[in-house]
Design goal:
The protein is α+β, with helices and mostly antiparallel strands. Helix content is 23%, strand content 39%. This is S-protein homolog.
């Protein structure tokens, strides 16, 4: 009679140890992986007009199928949009096209202004800056190095 009771207690003790180990591991995962992601700084895409006094920049961006509409920037103005990358789920992707000049006939190609990193699926506090100048479009990442020339304007006939 005592033997079956001891066997049941052994199974119960082993079961409780397994539950304790699972809870301990999941708490460690929560504190080291999930909790820091919830405090992730927003990412930013910045569009800036450095074309010169009196010159407007037209830009049209869309993100994950959401059209931001055609907008304009005066000289030395900038606009930014912010978003958070999610560790799980849909990845962020922002595409834009810039136009300038008389009747906005000079344009950039449709370019990818931002995409979620493929390596870890999570970027926190990233900045992607696209700058329009008279000779073309420049790019700067996280404001670490000076902006670098990316591509020239494409002239279209009116």
């Amino acid at each position: 009679m005592l033997m079956p009771l001891l066997r049941k207690m052994n199974f119960f003790i082993i079961f409780m140890l397994i539950i304790a180990m699972i809870l301990g591991v999941s708490e460690a995962i929560w504190h080291k992986v999930v909790a820091p992601l919830s405090k992730c700084e927003k990412n930013r895409v910045i569009i800036r007009n450095e074309l010169g006094p009196g010159r407007s920049l037209e830009y049209h961006c869309h993100s994950n199928g959401k059209d931001q509409g055609v907008q304009f920037l005066k000289f030395n103005e900038e606009r930014n949009f912010e978003f958070v990358d999610h560790f799980f789920g849909k990845k962020n992707k922002v595409n834009c096209v810039l136009r300038q000049g008389l009747w906005m006939q000079s344009s950039s190609r449709d370019f990818e202004a931002y995409h979620t990193s493929k390596s870890n699926g999570n970027n926190c506090g990233q900045t992607r800056e696209w700058i329009a100048r008279t000779d073309g479009t420049y790019f700067q990442r996280n404001r670490i190095k000076p902006a670098a020339f990316v591509f020239p304007w494409i002239n279209k006939k009116p």
